[in-house]
Amino acid sequence: MTVALPRRALLGAALAAPALARAQGAARLLVVGGGFGGATAASYARREHPWLDVTLVEQRRSYITCPYSNRVLAGDLALADITFGYEGLRARGVRVVHDRAVHLDPVARRLRLGGGETLSYDRVILSPGIVLRYDALEGYDEAASARMPHAWTAADGAQITLLRRQLQAMPDGGVVGLVIPPNPYRCPPGPYERISLIASYLSKHKPRSKILALDAKEAFSKQALFQDAWQALYPGMIEWVSAANDGRVVRVDPEDMVLETEFGTRHRVSVANVIPPQSAAAIAIDAGLADSTGWVPVDPRTLESRAAAGVHVVGDAMFPGSMPKSGFLANSEAKAAVSAAAALLRGEAPPEPIFVNTCYSHIGPEYAISVANIFRVDEESRSFAEVPNSGGTSPRGDLPEQRRLEALYADGWYASIIRSMFG
């Protein structure tokens, strides 16, 4: 007679298998991607679960953060100020492999690298970030980004540097055009912080210039706070155009520096910052982890891919439901994923995760605003839900000391999270 085991028992047996197979040695935790999600995961795993054998795969030898890159555009920071190496992770006992992750095989539990090496794992935390969807905007491709930079993936810093130099070279009285994508995308308040800090630079050096922000959305994060600040600090300099008012850009012409909207309006600009739609990075899509949205759906309790056992996905590549794609949440998700992976490797039930988000946005050198949220697992929707009354935004009003303190808090947050990632 065949006895049907309960689903929980079957699941527990399957998930415990790698740990049992590795009973004579350390369980192998592989981390792919060395940004806010990946570096946090590797560092946290070594600190909290020293019995794990942790390997981090990251192609770049140094990491340039997207958070605070807008301050480089404003001239408040240099690129070196937001660039970090991986020596601290090595000192914590993480094996760091600088190579390109080419192909993930979730069935065989192997990762093939560009240099030919293959890494086996018991569980993997995948934090590969995003890829820009160049096919989503007519006229915009990788070649066009040399004329109309996106500056939305830090990579080697070339795009940030290019946009900064274009702003410096623009004559006073020029127009800076921004193309802002629909949701979801990396860092929802990011384009509006960028508008603010470009305005900060222009107000000091090119005060007759204008900023035209063409948006594919009707509203945006911390909108009232941003617009209050624009009126107070940069009156008459910034024009934000919503989708309903013909703000959705459908075509660009890099040669003539023209942004064309869906109703045929053509805007000629001096500098164009085009932020195209995005999706999960190619390695996640090629492994069959992403769904039709282009993002990776996960089990909210373990952050394990719904398409592949043993693969935990964190950061911008994940489909987060109601949670934004932020550096702070990538950090929080990474810790939850490590805790879940460690528990499952021991054959134990994963702990209940809590996801915390805080997002600061600079509007000037000594002026910042913030939003905070806490999220938990919603069993009914099998997704993430914000805890009622768990957060909020900065208060509105003429509050210069509040804004100055939030700028200091932002700097403290950045220093703290970088220290936790890189040592």
Automatic annotation (TrEMBL):
Pfam families: FCSD-flav_bind (PF09242), FCSD_central (PF21706), Pyr_redox_2 (PF07992). InterPro entries: FAD/NAD-bd_sf, FAD/NAD-binding_dom, FAD/NAD-linked_Rdtase_dimer_sf, FCSD_central, FlavoCytC_S_DH_flav-bd, FlavoCytC_S_DH_flav-bd_sf, SQRD. Keywords: FAD, Flavoprotein, Signal. Residues 351-422 form the Flavocytochrome c sulphide dehydrogenase flavin-binding domain. Residues 1-23 form the signal peptide. The keyword Signal applies. It comes from the Bacteria. Residues 28-140 form the FAD/NAD(P)-binding domain. This is NAD(P)/FAD-dependent oxidoreductase. It comes from Teichococcus vastitatis. The lineage of its organism: Bacteria, Pseudomonadati, Pseudomonadota, Alphaproteobacteria, Acetobacterales.
